[in-house]
Amino acid sequence: MFKQNAGEKLIDLLIEWGVDHIYGMPGDSINSIIEPLRKRQDKIKFIQVRHEEAGALAAAAYAKLTGKLGVCTAIAGPGAIHLLNGLYDAKLDKAPVLAITGQVETDLLGTDSFQEVNLERMFDDVAVYNQRIMSADQLPAVVNQAIRTAYAKKGVAVLTIPDDIPRFEVGKEARVTANFSVKQDISPLTEDLLRAKEIIEGAERPIILAGKGVHGHRETLLSFAEKVGAPIVLTLPGKGVIPDKHPYCLGGLGLIGTKPSYEAMQEADMLMMIGTSFPFTGFLPDNAKTIHIDIDPTQIGKRYPVDVGLAGDAGTSLKWLTEHISRKEDRTFLEKNQERTVKWWDNLESQEEDGSVPLKPQRLIHALKEVASDDAILSVDVGNVTVWMARHFPITNQSFVISSWLATLGCGLPGAIAGQIAYPDRQVFAICGDGGFAMTMADFVTAVKYDLPIIVVILNNHKIAMIKFEQEVMGNIEFGTNLQNPDFAKYAEACGGVGYRVERPEDILPSLQKAIQQKKPCIIDVVVDADEAPMPAKIQFSQAAGYTKHMLKQLFEEGKFDLPPL
Q1: DSSP SS3 for 382
Q2: Quick one: 181 exposed, middle or buried, by C-beta within 10 A (0-12, 13-18, 19+)?
Q3: What was the pLDDT predicted at 3?
Q4: Which terminus of the chain, N or C, has less C-beta within 10 A?
Q5: Distance between CA 524 and CA 552 in Å, rounded?
Q6: 271 in helix, strand or coil?
Q7: Is 266 within 8 Å of 253 (Cβ atoms)?
Q8: Secondary structure of 425-488 as H, E, C letters
Q9: pLDDT for res 22
Q10: Are 470 and 533 in contact (CB under 8 A)?
Q11: 314 exposed, middle or buried (CB, 10 Å; 0-12, 13-18, 19+)?
């Protein structure tokens, strides 16, 4: 009978689960895992990153893009600690990820050994499954349980493996368990569906807020919206559920949202929240009847009072409602908001035509729209760049991946690396601010090493610009937000990639076109206006008052008086 050690069994189990690559860095406490990984390179690739945080962020992005398990690995102590940020991103965005970390050898546990950290305690909050493996015979069942739990609970599973365990032989008495996960079709209670039907049919101004949970149900959602005559507003994780320029779409909501969506929310008498636990409740209606659909009952009514909760799959729930409700003939509310949205898009497009220097970020996004293919992957970093992409890039069938709930800077580049590995035949862009890109820029070398033809577009304003405007809206003078940046185009070349520096509007489109033709990792360093603020669609009195206070402080303390970029 063929005998295996636990390290070899671990790699075989990952392959059986369909894992074809792992992000990580080799090191002393996982070398007994790296060796069997080396032997199975034909089935599973090791993607060596330059920082474990980038590996965890890439694993999370891979899971978000594909629905498949993202896997990352790190040594005990410092390597495992570095994983945490990316793992929290996966936790909060409900992405299935497996983290495999090393640990000191079993006979050294509890002795304050070199690089020993209490990893079970450290990972306890981030993980839906968190287990230290204590024997070779235990490993197969625990690995299967970890992966099954990550899929079932859409979260992070952590396996901590002391360095000696992978070298021990797996005995014939080791438990054999299933290496697959099972999905279920969850339907709400009929009595709840009937109560929802009554509210829907009594509404005169219905509106839908669609989130991440509606991805994959585009036609079902549109059929329902058409029958009830309801416009659709999208959360940021829900961007791409339907095309942004679909007649029923009003765009996003909140500080990064559109004016039509804000106005429609204020006027609605019925709100349908689907697959979202939207946190910015100040943008939701004050006195609307509310129905909340979510597959997780704990999310229903969590942040906002609801009249009916439908605990079930979004597609299943919408199909039942569409079949059982009568068609709404009065389209006045829908048509009013469609007219507003047409004007809003016209306004955005006029901003995109601004040819002034310093270059406007909106002009860059306009050029990106021209070159991005219909199935491109857009990995968007956090900051002002999020606003420009959310507002100005109209999704058709592109994939839009971001750190939505944790909103961690530095996610753009690792997300693009994961996107190109997942879909090697598709265009992949990382759209980053200079602050976000600099946090993980070392891993541009990873894209070069593995010949991943990603295109990194950097909005370079030498500032942490979103924080600058937050400070000013609070009434404070900007402080601590200036950045000292390298020439990112030259950095790309130093890494072995291709770089373009863009300072004038007319150079944007040619640079993007050349980057696409290169079929190599590229950075386009675009110098943009540092004073161009992504103003909210609706300015609150407190924001205006705070900015006025900021201007007075600036006048009296610095002798300057700059009007806001309205």
Answers
A1: coil
A2: middle
A3: 82
A4: N
A5: 38
A6: strand
A7: no
A8: CCCEEEEEEHHHHHHHHHHHHHHHHCCCCCEEEEEECCECHHHHHHHHHCCCCCCCCECCCCCH
A9: 98
A10: no
A11: buried
Q: Where are the beta strands (DSSP E) in 305-454?
A: 308-311, 377-380, 399-401, 428-433
What is the dihedral angle through the alpha carbons of 343, 347, 352, 357, rounded to the nearest 10 degrees? 170
In which order are the strands placed within the sheet that holds 232-234?
249-252, 232-234, 206-210, 270-274, 289-294, 308-311
Q: How far is Cα 378 from Cα 426, in angstroms, rounded to an integer?
A: 11
Report the C-alpha gap between 477 and 547 in whole angstroms: 10
Parallel/antiparallel/unpaired status of strands 308-311 and 289-294: parallel
Three-state DSSP state, 130 = strand
Report the distance separating Cα 552 and Cα 283, nearest Å.
Answer: 29
In which residue are the tokens 């559920």 written? 241
Closest CA to 54 of 86, 14, 29, 84: 86
455-499 pLDDT per residue, tens: 999 999 999 888 888 888 888 888 988 999 999 999 999 999 999
Q: Is 350 exposed, middle or buried (0-12, 13-18, 19+ CB in 10 A)?
A: exposed
553 pLDDT band (50/70/90 cuts)?
Answer: very low
Residue partners of 198: CB distance under 8 A and separation at least 6: none
Sequence-ordered alpha helix ranges (H) in 353-430: 361-371, 384-392, 412-422
Q: How many CA atoms does the CB half-sphere of 212 hold within 13 Å?
A: 21
- Taken as a whole, the chain contains a residue count of 566
Beta carbons of 350 and 331 less than 8 angstroms apart: no
Give CA–CA dist 479/472, Å, rounded: 10
pLDDT tens by residue, 51-72: 999 999 999 999 999 999 999 9
Q: Are 127 and 71 in contact (CB under 8 A)?
A: no
Strand partners, 377: 399, 428
Q: CA 341, CA 344: separation in Å to the nearest integer?
A: 5
- pLDDT of 471 reads 81
Contacts for 218 with CB less than 8 Å, ≥ 6 apart: 241, 242
Residues 537 and 253: their CA atoms lie apart, in Å, by 9
Angle in degrees, CA 229, 235, 241, rounded to 5? 65
Per the rule left: phi > 0, alpha: psi between -120 and 50, beta: everything else, 67 is left
Backbone angles phi, psi at 564, to 5 degrees: -65, 150
> What is the rounded CA–CA span in Å between residue 501 and residue 458?
10
Going from the C-alpha of 206 to that of each of 195, 203, 285, 486, the distances in angstroms are 16, 6, 11, 50
CA triple 58-61-66, angle to 5 deg: 125
Alpha-carbon distance 447 to 15, whole Å? 24
DSSP tag of 96: -
Q: Tell me the two tokens of residue 523.
A: 């950075």
Query: Residue 270 corresponds to which tokens in the numbers above?
Result: 């019925």
134-174 pLDDT, tens digit each: 999 999 999 999 999 999 999 999 999 999 999 999 988 77
